[in-house]
Structure formats: C-alpha cells, structure tokens
Amino acid sequence: MPNPIKMLLWIWVVFNIFMAVWVGLNALKTDREIFGAPFGLPASPQWDNFVTAWSLSGFGGAALNSAVVVALSAVLTIAIAAPAAYVISRSHRRLAALAKTYVALCVALPVQTILVPLFIARSEVRAFAIEYLFGWWDDRITLVFIYIATSLPFSVFLLTAAFASLPTSLNEAAEMDGASPLDTFARIMVPVAWPGIKSALVLNALNMWNETLLVLVLIPDPSQQTLPAALLRLYGTMQYNSNWGGLFAGIVILIYPVLVLYLWVGRRIMEGLTSGATK
To answer: Which parts of the chain span the membrane according to its record (predicted)?
Structure first.
C-alpha cells in the first residue's frame, strides 16, 4: 500500500513544478494568448516582456539591492553564527545549556511579533546617524543588520548541531599538537563542518532573497527596496496597463534565480545537514 504522506509530497512537488513552468511560459506570451490559451505554448516568444518588466518599477536597481543585501547579510550571519555555535556545542557549562534554550526559543519567535520594535529602532538609528554621525543614512544598511539579527537564531541552532556531531577527538588531537582554541576552530573545525556551514549559508540566502515584509515596513524609499517589493510595484502597474506578460516576466526574474540555485545545491544542502558526523 502506497504511503499517503509520500503521495501528498509528490503531488505537491508536481504542482510546484507545473506552476513554475506555467509562469515561465506565460512570461513569453501576449495578453491575448494568456487569456485565450493560458496553458498553451506561446505562438511567438515575447522576449520584450522581460525588457518591460526590467525597465519598469526599478527592477534593475532592485536586483542590485537584493544581490548586495543578501550577500552581505548571509555571509556576516554565518561569520557570527559559526563561532557562537562552536562554543555552545563544545561547552558543558550551564550557560551553554541556557544559550541553547534561548536560541531554540528565538527560532520559534515569528518576526511579525517584533515588527513594531524593529520599526522604532530603525527610526531612532536613522535619526541618530543623520544628526550625530554621518549626516546621512541608507536604510539598506538597516536591512542588513536586521536580516543578520533575525537569521542568527536559526543559523546558530543549525550549526550547533553540525559542530556537536563532530568527534571531540579532533579537539584533543589539536590540543596535543599545541594548537590554540582559535586555530582549532579556524583550521580544523570549520573545514570539517564546511558542508553544514555552506548549507546554512544557502538557506539563509534563499530566505533573505524572498523576504518581503521587512522591506516594505522598514524601507520606504523605492530606490532602496529589493526585488520582492519591486514585483509588488510592478503588479500595481501592470494590472492597470493590461500587460500581464510583463508581470509574469517579473515573477520569473524574481523566482527563477532562486529556483535554479536550489536545484543546483538542493542535494548538497541535505548532504551538508547530515554529513558532519561522517567526516
């Protein structure tokens, strides 16, 4: 008898593949083709839809914003989370146990519950920076800091498990060779735990790339917003201009890079999450 849970998962996978292909095909159609034959192939691919989507609603600048913000946020998150996770995983003190509990609670905390404090903090930091420090402030910097803060609990939680799966004999051997704790971490533990670290990096990047709520609340300037917010602006423009092909093209620009990245590293992510104990 087939497993019903497996069947539901396969149905969900097929549905998502179908939707991704359907969006891609409609991005190459005219509006008449989209409404006349929504599930058919395009008679003549309309590549101009991508030009329209890219030129409207600041898609070019938003793509650059997304790339820079996500890259900085993901890398800095792992740079902070990895040492913290290593210390927690190797410490047997009560404080480490409390830290594990605190991290687990933070992972379960929805970002919506701290949205108002984040907005107030952003306003105060912006005012302080403009008045006392630089004379200006870029809200993309705020977004990077907030992405780091909201991603750290998950990253520490994930990497703690990765480092905890490594045998303590590695630490003992390094100590016998005269390696300092910092050398042990940087030269031994990080390379051995690299699959798990890479998995955490990719998962954070995927999550940050698709994040929309914080961008809309914390960045009022459209020129500083990322791709998801630009897509919402594009939707508001296209639905009144009756250019649905351009809207589908905008969706492709947003989701296909992430989809390709996940298809490329998806298996490596799963291997990274489970390979620490076998290194």
So the answer is: 7-25, 67-89, 101-121, 141-164, 244-265
Residue with tokens 């890219």: 54
Cβ neighbours, 10 Å, residue 107: 14
Has residue 74 been placed in a domain? yes
Q: How many residues are recorded in the chain?
A: 279
- pLDDT tens by residue, the chain, 279 residues: 568 888 898 899 899 889 999 999 999 998 888 888 888 888 888 898 898 888 877 888 898 999 999 999 999 999 999 999 999 988 877 887 888 888 888 888 888 888 888 889 888 888 888 877 777 788 899 999 999 999 999 999 999 988 888 888 888 888 888 888 888 888 889 998 888 898 899 899 999 999 999 999 989 888 899 999 998 888 877 767 777 888 899 899 888 888 888 777 766 666 666 654 444
Looking up residue 146, the CATH number of its domain turns out to be 1.10.3720.10
- Could you give the 3-state DSSP secondary structure of residue 168? coil
H helix intervals, 108-243: 115-128, 139-164, 169-176, 181-183, 190-192, 194-210, 213-218, 227-241
2 within some domain: no
Residue 142 covered by a domain: yes
Q: Is residue 102 part of a domain?
A: yes
* Count of domains observed in the chain: 1
Q: Containing domain of residue 154, as a range?
A: 61-227+267-278
